[in-house]
Design a protein that fits this description.
The structure holds two protein chains of two kinds.
Chain A lengths: L18 E4 L17 E4 L12 E6 L2 E6 L5 E5 L6 E7 L2 E9 L3 E6 L4 E7 L4 E6 L6 E7 L6 E7 L7 E3 L4 E7 L6 E3 L5 E6 L2 E6 L4 E6 L13 E6 L5 E6 L3 E6 L8 E6 L5 E6 L5 E6 L4 E5 L6 E4 L6 E6 L5 E6 L3 E6 L4 E6 L12 E2 L6 E4 L4 E6 L4 E7 L15 E8 L4 E9 L5 E11 L4 E9 L6 E6 L9 E6 L3 E9 L8 E10 L5 E6 L5 E6 L2 E6 L4 E7 L5 E6 L7 E6 L3 E6 L4 E7 L2 E6 L6 E6 L4 E6 L6 E9 L3 E8 L17 E7 L4 E5 L3 H5 L1 H9 L6 H17 L4 H6 L7 H8 L8 H12 L10 H18 L4 H9 L3 H9 L1 H15 L3 H4 L2
Parallel strand pairs in A: 9-13
Antiparallel strand pairs in A: 1-57, 2-3, 3-4, 4-5, 6-7, 7-8, 8-9, 10-11, 11-12, 12-14, 15-16, 16-17, 17-18, 19-20, 20-21, 21-22, 23-24, 24-25, 25-26, 27-28, 28-29, 29-30, 31-32, 32-33, 33-34, 35-36, 36-37, 37-38, 39-40, 40-41, 41-42, 43-44, 44-45, 45-46, 47-48, 48-49, 49-50, 51-52, 52-53, 53-54, ...
Chain B lengths: L4 E5 L9 E7 L4 E6 L4 E5 L5 E6 L7 E7 L3 E6 L3 E6 L4 E7 L5 E6 L5 E6 L4 E6 L4 E6 L9 E4 L5 E5 L3 E6 L5 E6 L3 E2 L2 E2 L5 E6 L4 E6 L3 E6 L4 E7 L5 E6 L5 E6 L3 E9 L7 E10 L5 E6 L3 E6 L4 E5 L14 E3 L7 E4 L4 E5 L4 E5 L20 E6 L13 E6 L5 E6 L4 E6 L4 E7 L11 E4 L5 E5 L5 E5 L4 E5 L7 E6 L5 E6 L4 E5 L4 E2 L1 H9 L3 H4 L7 E4 L6 E6 L2 E6 L22 H7 L3 E4 L5 E8 L2 E6 L2 H7 L12
Parallel strand pairs in B: 1-53
Antiparallel strand pairs in B: 2-3, 3-4, 4-5, 6-7, 7-8, 8-9, 10-11, 11-12, 12-13, 14-15, 15-16, 16-17, 18-19, 20-21, 21-22, 22-23, 24-25, 25-26, 26-27, 28-29, 29-30, 30-31, 32-33, 33-34, 34-35, 36-37, 37-38, 38-39, 40-41, 41-42, 42-43, 44-45, 45-46, 46-47, 48-49, 49-50, 50-51, 52-53
The chains are: A mainly beta, B mainly beta.
């Protein structure tokens, strides 16, 4: 599809492509395929803010390190530069304004986290699994690396050279401890740096740096049932005393003392957790020990005594990490549901940083709340989560099941299986089910109404056992002119039911409630799917292999379609100009399109469709099919059998759900192939619960501008000049922010206005000499001309997109794009060339629209 | 082994009394244990934890305190207000002396061993001087408001700490006045309990006083200033006992929940001299209150209401990891409580304050190996004897052990003066025949007697000296079996051969020919070859030896957990052979059976086994006392919430 452009050599790189954006993965690792769950550390900035000692919280999120403000819970910076998962972060013990991070890409990076600047990169060359620092180890840091043999990990000390250059080779690592666990929680350094403790399986090894000797303490691991779960899970060292705390798989915590003598060592047991201890932390003074696990309860053991423990219960999900701020006034826990809780020292949760919950299986699919434009899907067990895609924040959780969740293995829980919004967000229908044994199905349908006063959903009607068997589909009639809300449920019991809102008033109050209006069936086949046409006049219900069309006014069966190609899995009506078409995807891999006017099959094709989603703003339908190589995306109009756009191998795993999210401001994609993305954005969720989307911008570009501008402009007075300059900066910022700040400093020739603010906001000690910066500074003050020639413009766009494509290549997407070029549709290419000329004009028009004249109105 | 019909007796309704006090004597490595019924037992920890001495109790003599003084002297004090000294040679009470302070709750011997301190109900602390023959009241300390429940001397002997109700007093020994009164917090986990009882105090040489109380606290006090230093809350119930090691680097407390906690003094960091007390390991070996604990150099000893005496060795103090490093749980006395009339099929059960006589049931049914036969006639409870015969001659009043001859014409009585009396029994009366006086110089009582079936020989053994064999016909000492390091646990003389079989507490067995006055050939062989290592590791002593009337090569013996027939004709096992072979299945070929056969045929089917004997050549009687039955008779333990229930 990439038309021949100026200066284009490679086919894949210049292609203006829907780069696969890894949507913000939440606050920490999202994908279970990542072997090491990154750690959280809290930063302390005592010199900057005495009155608020622990200002920043660091958290590893995929390839990035995020810096959050503990006061506002806002993400202040995203430190990016690693090319693989970040596995460890530690504050520089000699400079508390700096942070070390290590990654699978084999580098250790030193950051200035206040400004988000990469100071140095040290290359080690091997995959680094964990990072440790210690004040007494002068220039060295400790990392965990893998030996050649599988499953054997070593703790090595790496000397970081003191060179002025940005990139440096680290010196040859020096072995400290062999055969350790790769988990960062399984190694801890003693308070005075005299020893390092490591746990693995059933033993604890303590290496004394002075003696250069290792003591090893083994717990019995025999077949004895009592000791079968003695495995160590984590270790921490007391900040003041010679005491090591270890967590175990059976929920015990052992406090080891006197371990410098292999004979006289002794330990104390603390036991509250009934499942494994996930993480431990000592308070800053060592007065208490904190532990957490699957119970989602933070336990504080005061004086390390069994009887004097305090609890912070109901934290929502398994505690994965516990971190204590160096000043000791704050704690934070990270949870398996992608959440960080900041807790005061008196065990009061003060703030929650919640990302997309990915703890449970997604049964409801992806939906968009028409009111908040939030993505709605299963969240915590029994809850619906409303997740804002724009701010990467969970807006709120709606408790659907309204029962205390008991976390126990093997317990059959009530599952929230279906949900649908109706009447532009005024109604929400949910279905929950619980099936312990065959034939013992508990089913409940709830209808929620949006209460404007409380700005939330309120339960209106509860229908228990709406059907005899599982409900397979749920849909509202969303036609604008429909007089009363209508809901249709289809079930495996062979029936579909139509529910309407009816008057439910009695002498006490006026109320409305939902009642069943019509029950339909077709030859006792199981109803598999249902769907309303856009205007609400027709209802399509699929019964196994047959699709039936009903008139919604009278509930009369109009016609049936049967293709004998397996059960219908997906069903949807075409929209707008294509509303005369009905699409159905079957289990045997056939996609059929019926014409409702002629009641005949318009076209059909072989495609094993897993997800089929219509775009609410256009005629387009997106379908994801599963093939051997991965999942392929097809975008087509029902009226045309040829797809508008094909992207092979959008991801290697199965795509479970997809959704179109309408854009607030339509985007302008120049390429025709991407015009389907203009009005809405397509998000999809994979089997490993990664939420992905198509974008031409890198996510941080999307997420950070607001916060960054706040930071940069807070000191600028609002003068007319500011409006000119500020506007200008905003505009340019879109282009520039993609490149990280360090590049600006490193390559000052890039003429960019944000460079001024960078210059002003970067600490003087990390800046190059003033003479060096002078030309850049002067250049940056020059206003760039708005009136660039139209011919230049496409080039600029290309540049921008190249950058974006580069950044996404860092995520390892290269093969996809190359592949894509191969699959480009020839016909579309032709069409594109034909429309070239008109597009130039269009572009200019669009540019005019983009130019902001609002400054004219400014005072 | 042969097939037997076994009477499996479970109606011996024996419940040991709960342990009230234990006192460890470092000098002799002995442990004195007193029970709630006033019984005092002495265990020899060097002799495989054998209970070598035993002082029967009395209802009126409930002991509350027990202590060793002047090396080997043992004192006890109880709620009857008396201080008792025991004669460990003659196995009787040397004297008892009233302290005139009401019931005595606590007692402590001074570090110099010259003084004895008792704490009484009326709040008085009385100091006694220990003289060689008796103790003598010296003076009273300042009278306190309520009973003194615990006492501890400062190792220098200058101060004492006395635990009372709600407070601890520190006395100056010289002046006898209280110099500090340390009030103990009544609060218990936020709830105010009515009173806080100081169950135990320990005074360390650095002036620290450790107290344990009914609120579940272990507290450290500075006796110089009278201030609280640190509190460890260890239990939801009372902490009832404390014992400190001699080095003062570790101590142990026992709680009413049955848990024993170990505290150790560990250095805070490896290169600083600062040390702190840390609670280390909990031990849950008891189900009921741990009323008392002791701390030997290598082990923690605890006892309580659940009647077990638990000796838990400290692994870090044990040099070699041999069988001594294993946990010991002593429940049953190391002596026979049951005697059996073979001809009449009667069983006599000895309880602490009465006797029961039962007739065994019988059956007419026959069955295969392993079958349970139905009883045609149930066992009868014939007699319950509680009264004592008052008309007895003075010399018979303090018998340690009595024994009838096989033909029931003679009665042998071992008195507590070390002498043996022979009495001829007539119809309705008796006649004193002879007294074997104790060997020159010793007054050690004989605690085990055995008579030969033909009535000619009488073997008697004390706790330390060897076994003496007397000729009953000629009424003189026949010979003395050479003394052995370990005490004798069982004695028997074989019929016909008149071989004396002796079992010692280290599981060694000797066979001594009385006519030849020397060890038999078999005994020499087994001594030369040595016993199987598993045999030597058994931790309960052999309490009974008997013989098969028809098979002279067989020796039958048992301890609490096994029954064994030694067939002297078979080869002895060595360390490579399997000692505990189950009965070989009958379908196995004889060759294999013969190859694996060795002299020790062991059955572990009946346990805990209190008594086992042959009634006739085809019938055995086994008296078992299942632990569950004992627990069922104990008061219910403190209810603890168990997770998941």
């Amino acid at each position: 599809m990439a038309g021949p452009r100026k200066g284009t050599t490679g086919s894949g790189r210049k292609w203006l492509g829907p780069e696969r954006e890894r949507l913000h993965q939440g606050t920490h690792s999202c994908s279970p395929a990542w072997p090491v769950i990154p750690s959280l550390r809290d930063g302390c900035v005592p010199r900057l803010c005495r009155y608020r000692p622990c200002k920043y919280l660091f958290c590893v999120s995929g390839d990035f390190v995020k810096v959050y403000s503990t006061a506002t819970e806002e993400c202040v910076h995203v430190l990016q530069g690693h090319r693989n998962l970040v596995t460890g972060i530690q504050l520089n013990p000699h400079n508390h304004l700096q942070l070390y991070s290590c990654s699978f890409d084999g580098t250790i990076k030193l950051w200035d986290y206040l400004d988000g600047i990469l100071i140095k990169t040290f290359t080690v060359g091997q995959k680094l699994h964990a990072l440790y620092t210690h004040a007494l180890a002068e220039d060295s840091v400790f990392v965990t690396i893998k030996k050649e043999k599988p499953d054997v990990f070593q703790l090595v000390s790496v000397r970081l050279p003191r060179s002025p250059r940005q990139d440096a080779e680290a010196e040859e690592p020096c072995l400290v401890l062999d055969y350790i666990s790769p988990s960062p929680k399984c190694v801890a350094f003693g308070s005075q740096g005299e020893y390092v403790a490591a746990v693995r399986d059933f033993y604890l090894s303590v290496y004394f740096f002075k003696k250069k000797a290792t003591s090893r303490f083994t717990l019995s691991s025999s077949g004895n049932r009592k000791h079968a779960k003695n495995n160590f899970t984590c270790v921490v060292c007391h900040p003041k005393e010679d005491c090591i705390a270890t967590g175990h798989k059976d929920g015990k915590i052992r406090l080891w003392r006197g371990f410098d003598d292999e004979k006289k060592y002794t330990y104390t047991c603390l036991h509250w957790h009934h499942d494994l201890v996930m993480d431990l932390a000592f308070s800053a003074t060592g007065g208490s020990l904190l532990s957490g696990g699957r119970e989602s309860v933070l336990v504080e053991w005061r004086d390390a005594a069994e009887k004097t423990k305090e609890f912070l219960p109901r934290l929502g999900a398994t505690i994965e990490h516990i971190s204590v701020s160096p000043a000791g006034d704050l704690l934070c826990t990270s949870h398996s549901d992608n959440k960080i809780t900041i807790i005061h020292r008196n065990l009061e949760a003060s703030a929650v940083i919640q990302g997309l919950v990915r703890d449970s299986s997604i049964l409801t699919g992806l939906m968009i709340d028409p009111r908040t434009k939030a993505l709605v899907l299963n969240g915590k067990p029994g809850h619906l989560q409303f997740y804002s895609l724009q701010s990467d924040k969970q807006l709120y959780n709606l408790d659907i099941v309204q029962q205390e969740y008991i976390n126990d293995y093997g317990l059959v829980q009530i599952e929230l299986t279906k949900a649908a919004f109706g009447c532009f967000g005024a109604w929400l229908a949910t279905v929950e089910q619980r099936q312990e044994k065959e034939g013992e199905l508990e089913l409940q349908m709830k209808l929620w109404t949006y209460n404007k006063k409380t700005q939330g959903f309120v339960l209106n009607t509860k229908v228990s056992m709406p059907h005899e068997d599982r409900i397979t589909a749920l849909c509202f009639c969303n036609a604008e002119k429909s007089e009363s809300p209508t809901l249709v449920t289809a079930s495996r019991d062979g029936r579909f039911k139509v529910w309407v809102l009816a008057d439910d008033s009695d002498i006490y109050r006026e109320a409305v409630g939902w009642t069943c209006d019509f029950v339909g069936s077709y030859h006792k086949y199981q109803a598999t799917n249902c769907c309303f046409s856009e205007d609400g006049s027709l209802l399509a219900v699929s019964f196994e292999e047959t699709v039936t069309i009903w008139e919604s006014e009278t509930w009369e069966l109009r016609c049936t379609f049967c293709q004998r190609a397996g059960h219908v899995r997906h069903l949807c009506f075409g929209r707008l100009t294509c509303s005369k078409y009905l699409l159905g995807a079957t289990e045997n891999g056939t996609l059929c399109c019926w014409n409702l006017l002629s009641c005949a099959l318009e076209w059909s094709t072989k495609l094993n469709i897993t997800v089929m989603e219509p775009d609410p703003r256009s005629e387009n339908v997106a379908a994801v099919s599963r093939s051997s190589g991965g999942s392929d995306l097809f975008v087509f109009k029902p009226s045309e059998p040829r797809p508008l756009y094909v992207q092979r191998n959008i991801c290697s795993e199965e795509v479970r759900w997809g959704v179109f999210v309408p854009r607030d401001v339509p985007d302008a994609f120049t390429s025709e192939a991407l015009q389907w993305l203009n009005r809405s954005q397509f998000y999809f969720l994979t089997a490993s619960q990664s939420l992905l989307t198509f974008s031409s911008k890198s996510p941080e570009e999307k997420l950070t501008p607001t916060s960054k501008q706040l930071l940069a402009e807070e000191s600028l007075p609002t003068t007319p000049f500011y409006f000119i300059l500020g506007r200008h900066r905003q505009q340019r910022g879109e282009q520039a922010d993609g490149a990280s700040e360090n590049e600006l400093v490193q390559l000052p020739l890039t003429e960019n206005v944000p460079a001024i603010s960078e210059l002003l906001h970067t600490p003087a000690h990390v800046l190059p000499s003033a003479a060096f910066l002078c030309s850049m500074f002067v250049n940056s003050l020059l206003l760039a001309t708005e009136a660039r020639s139209a011919e230049e413009m496409p080039d600029d766009v290309d540049m921008e997109e190249e950058k974006a494509s580069d950044s996404s290549e860092e995520e390892g997407d290269v093969p996809e794009k190359v592949q894509h070029a191969d699959h480009t549709d020839v016909g579309e290419d032709l069409r594109q060339q034909l429309s070239q000329l008109s597009k130039c004009e269009e572009k200019e028009l669009r540019k005019l629209r983009r130019v902001d004249y609002s400054w004219v109105t400014a005072p | 082994m042969g097939e037997f019909k076994v009477h499996r007796v479970r109606f011996f309704n024996y419940v040991p009394s709960g342990i009230r006090c234990v006192a460890y004597n470092n000098q002799s490595n002995r442990l004195a244990v007193s029970r709630t019924d006033g019984t005092v037992e002495i265990y020899n920890l060097s002799a495989n934890y054998f209970q070598e001495k035993f002082f029967p109790g009395h209802e009126s003599r409930a002991t509350e305190a027990l202590c060793w003084a002047k090396g080997q002297r043992l004192f006890s004090a109880g709620l009857n207000g008396e201080i008792i000294e025991y004669d460990l040679q003659a196995l009787n009470i040397k004297y008892s002396m009233d302290a005139f302070g009401g019931p005595i709750w606590s007692m402590a011997a001074s570090p110099s061993d010259s003084q004895l301190l008792v704490g009484c109900e009326d709040g008085s602390v009385k100091l006694f001087q220990i003289n060689p023959d008796k103790i003598q009241f010296e003076r009273n300390f300042d009278l306190q408001k309520s009973r003194i429940l615990s006492l501890s001397w400062n190792p220098s002997g200058t101060h004492i700490a006395a635990g009372s109700i709600d407070y601890i007093s520190v006395f100056d020994v010289k002046s006898g006045s209280a110099i500090h009164k340390m009030l103990v917090d009544r609060q218990y986990m936020g709830v105010s309990k009515r009173k806080c009882i100081i169950w135990g105090v320990a005074f360390l040489s650095d002036g620290t006083v450790i107290s344990v109380d009914s609120a579940g606290k272990v507290q450290f006090w500075d006796s110089a200033t009278g201030t609280l230093v640190k509190t460890h809350l260890v239990a939801n119930a009372d902490v009832q006992s404390i014992a400190v090691s001699d080095q003062e680097d570790s101590f142990v407390v026992g709680t009413a929940e049955g848990t024993v906690f170990h505290f150790q003094l560990v250095s805070v960091t490896s290169n600083s001299s600062e040390k702190q007390w840390v609670r280390t390991k909990p031990f849950q070996h008891h189900t009921h209150d741990v009323r008392t604990v002791a701390h030997s150099p290598t082990a923690l000893i605890s006892g309580g209401t659940d009647t077990h005496l638990v000796i838990r060795p400290l692994m870090e103090k044990v040099e070699v990891k041999n069988y001594d490093a294993a946990l010991r749980k002593i429940t049953f006395p190391h002596r026979r409580l049951i005697s059996c009339s073979k001809k009449r099929q009667l069983l006599l059960f000895q309880f602490s304050h009465h006797l029961d006589l039962w007739r065994l049931g019988s059956t007419v049914a026959t069955g295969k190996h392993g079958d349970t036969l139905p009883l045609s006639k149930d066992a009868d409870h014939l007699l319950h004897l509680k009264t004592k015969v008052s008309k007895m001659p003075a010399f018979l009043r303090s018998a340690v052990q009595i024994l009838f001859s096989e033909d029931s014409t003679k009665l042998f009585v071992a008195s507590n003066q070390g002498s043996l009396h022979i009495i001829r029994l007539l119809e309705g009366s008796f006649k004193h025949l002879h007294t074997f006086q104790a060997q020159s110089g010793t007054v050690e009582s004989m605690c085990l007697l055995a008579v030969s079936p033909d009535g000619n020989w009488l073997a008697a053994s004390g706790t330390s000296a060897g076994v003496h064999v007397y000729n009953v016909k000629r009424l003189k000492l026949h010979c003395t079996v050479p003394a052995y390091n370990f005490p004798v646990t069982a004695l028997a003389i074989a019929p016909k051969t008149n071989n004396l079989v002796i079992a010692h507490s280290d599981q060694q067995i000797f066979e001594y020919s009385i006519p030849d006055k020397q060890y038999t050939e078999w005994s020499r062989t087994i001594q030369k070859q040595g016993f199987h290592y598993l045999w030597l590791q058994r931790d309960t002593p052999i309490t009974h030896i008997s013989f098969h009337p028809k098979r002279p090569m067989h020796i039958l013996l048992h301890d609490a957990y096994m029954f064994c027939i030694i067939d002297k004709s078979l080869p002895l096992p060595n360390d490579k052979t399997l000692l505990y072979n189950p009965l070989p299945p009958t379908n196995e070929s004889d060759v294999i059976r013969r190859r694996t056969a060795h002299a020790f045929k062991i059955s572990k089917r009946y346990k805990p086994l209190l008594f086992m004997d042959l009634l006739d050549e085809r019938t055995l009687v086994a008296v078992e006392r299942p632990l569950d039955d004992i627990i069922a008779q104990l008061p219910p333990p403190i209810k603890k919430k168990k997770f998941g229930t």
